[in-house]
Predict the 3D structure of the following.
Amino acid sequence: MSGQGAWIDMTLHSSYAFLLKLANNSEFRRAFESDPVGVLAASGIEIPPEELPHKVVLPASDELQALIGEYLHKAAEEMMGHFPHSLIGGVCPAERARMSYQEILEGGRRAPTATSAP
């Protein structure tokens, strides 16, 4: 570890993928609950063990998915007026916020649908 306190070395993309994995991958969730320091470190987040609770228990998957979706929807709505679609790969921020975990891992690309901008 690089010193006292927490250290985070993640991109926005990798942090979003990490949260989605926590919400959707039961094996990853079990690993996180049994070894949070190791899983966090492998993901680019270093936290001294003494700064974590003795036992880590994640919220239910559906609760975590709902929280992530709610946050991303609000963030996307806020961004809508700030960036033209061409700057973000032709997918509006609100549509990007609704992308699945697999789509995020694949680089955030998907074919436009009737509701998404080309």
